[in-house]
Design a protein that fits this description.
The complex is a heterodimer of chains A (about 300) and B (about 210). Chain A has about 300 residues and is mainly alpha-helical. Chain A contains 14 helices and two strands; from the N terminus they run H-H-H-H-E-E-H-H-H-H-H-H-H-H-H-H. In chain A, helix 1 packs across helix 10 (about 220-235) and helix 7 packs across helix 9 (about 185-210). With about 210 residues, chain B is an alpha/beta fold. Chain B has one domain (about 1-205): 3-Layer(aba) Sandwich (Rossmann fold). Chain B has seven helices and ten strands. Chain B starts with a strand and ends with a strand. The chains are: A mainly alpha (about 300), B alpha/beta (about 210).
């Protein structure tokens, strides 16, 4: 595989994490414009734990995930009375608070003769894990691919459980869910928290891959893209958001003569896809059709 | 068992109920009818927690339902269906019972007799309305409710369908379940219910 192709594939994997986190939140019927903050918090947590505290890479990633999960829970507790547009506004505000405060925090240090550490808008340089461990681009691609596959497997198990079924009803028809005796609150908390954790995991891997992070990387457009991936991919199966990522990063950003016009083409493509597939390419209905086609009719 | 005590409810200054009192005994099958805007659906919404009364009490056994959320009331066994059918349009019917697989297998006979068996693998948009209404009733029945409110269950039924449906209800609603059928037409409740109440503007409930 050419180096360029490997980089593109790695990027597809990395942005799949944030797309999957947007997917989880859309399932419970909310729209979050703030997933980029969790991506950023995951990246910054990893950098801080790894560089300042010299924790092992596994612990750094794990702690970043836990922090993002807890912040997700906290965010959904604080917004427990909000929904729809108001929830979206709150998440956007949260994300901007994070991004703008990272612009202000400066605590540069020197490590092994290299400048590193938090440095406001100049970013966090020299997160050198991949160099220190001699991991080449292909190796790192395999690492992200394995983690993404494990995550998708977890999604697959979740998808078959009553948790996902109830969560989908909570997101689709709150009144129906309540009349069936489903308490919507734990689903909301769990899904928004988990979405934070998944986005944070993606962010941590992103920080490792790029070895340099700055607040501007976690701007609003990243969050909007993660939503767009899920909306064009559809809410039927977790493969949907991955399809969205593939269309944007795999096709548009990577084909050189297209990348200049990426935003224009992507915007138009989203509009066209939504005209033909109003609920995304793999909509819940299509997912049910697939299930109906493959599994026996009737009960057992 | 379920009791609404001098309940007052108004919407934007218009009183729907001034002092409504309604009692339901265990195993009772009651019909409730009335003209447009007399508060038939409001009564269901109050009893299942989707609306809060302005004044008065709502009790289930010894328990006040006023501070409970709709899902808690549903868990207690006070179930309802909806006048406008509420089924997810992206799931086939058999995925919409929301009870354990075992429960469905135990009650296969009931599902078969109800006449929806041939539609279990279809989406709601591919089924006629009577099937969808039966589906909602079945969904509520499978949860073994102690009180069941049916809001316009036979709307859109032909006479034969109505007769079959009444037979089905008589046969499969457990004797311990209290049933309240709320409808414009009285045919179904005449076949199924033992007591029929009428709702009138600003008047107490009376037997008709």
């Amino acid at each position: 595989m050419s180096l360029y192709l490997v980089t593109v594939l790695t990027n597809i994997c990395l942005f799949s994490f944030i797309a999957l986190s947007a997917y989880l939140i859309l399932i419970v019927g909310e729209v979050s414009f703030g997933q980029q903050a969790f991506f950023g918090i995951g990246a910054y947590s990893l950098a801080i734990f790894y560089v300042y505290f010299d924790l092992s890479i596994i612990y750094s990633i794990f702690l970043g995930m836990v922090i993002c999960f807890c912040l997700g829970l906290l965010l959904s507790l604080l917004t427990i009375k909000l929904s729809g547009l108001y929830f979206a506004m709150a998440t956007l505000a949260f994300a901007e608070v994070f991004r703008l405060s990272m612009n202000l925090v400066r605590f540069p240090i020197e490590k092994d003769g290299r400048a590193t550490g938090l440095n406001g808008p100049e970013g966090f340089e020299n997160i050198r894990w991949i160099f220190e461990n001699n991991i080449d681009t292909l190796g790192f691609f395999y690492i992200t691919l394995i983690i993404l596959t494990i995550l998708l497997f977890c999604f697959f198990i979740l998808e078959r459980s009553f948790i996902m079924k109830n969560a989908r009803i909570v997101g689709k028809d709150l009144i129906l869910a309540q009349s069936l005796g489903i308490n919507p609150r734990p689903y909301r908390l769990f899904f928004i928290g988990t979405a934070g954790g998944i986005s944070g995991l993606g962010g941590a891997l992103f920080a490792l891959a790029s070895t340099y992070i700055e607040p501007a990387m976690f701007g609003m457009m990243l969050g909007v893209h993660s939503l767009a991936y899920t909306i064009i991919g559809g809410l039927g199966l977790p493969i949907g958001p991955l399809l969205g990522v593939f269309i944007d990063i795999g096709l548009l950003e990577s084909i050189r003569f297209l990348s200049e016009y990426r935003m224009i083409i992507f915007g138009g493509l989203v509009a066209i896809i939504l005209i033909f597939y109003p609920e995304g390419i793999i909509s819940p209905r299509i997912a049910s059709r697939i299930k109906r086609f493959f599994f026996s009719k009737g009960f057992k | 068992m379920l009791e609404l005590k001098s309940v007052k409810k108004s919407f934007g200054g218009i009183n729907v109920f001034e002092k409504l009192t309604f009692q339901l005994e265990k195993g009772e099958r009651v019909g409730l009818t009335g003209g447009n805007g007399t508060g038939k659906s409001t009564l269901i919404n109050l009893a299942t927690g989707f609306l809060l009364p302005d004044e008065g009490e709502i009790n289930f056994g010894n328990l006040s339902l006023l501070n409970l959320k709709p899902w808690q009331i549903a868990k207690l066994g006070v179930r309802r269906n909806f006048q406008s059918v509420r089924l997810s349009d992206s799931l086939v019917l058999k995925d919409q019972f929301f009870v354990s697989e075992q429960k469905i297998l135990d009650n296969l006979e009931m599902i078969e007799v109800s006449g929806i068996k041939g539609f279990l693998d279809r989406f709601p948009s591919e089924c006629p309305l009577p099937i969808l209404r039966k589906m909602e009733v079945l969904r509520a029945l499978l949860s073994c409710p102690s009180v069941l409110f049916l809001d316009e269950p036979s709307a859109g039924f032909s006479r034969t369908e109505l007769n079959e449906f009444s037979q089905f209800l008589i046969q499969y609603i457990p004797t311990s379940t209290s049933l309240v059928i709320v409808e414009h037409r009285t045919e179904l409740m005449e076949l199924v219910c033992t007591k029929n109440w009428g709702l009138f503007f600003n008047e107490p409930l009376r037997i008709i």
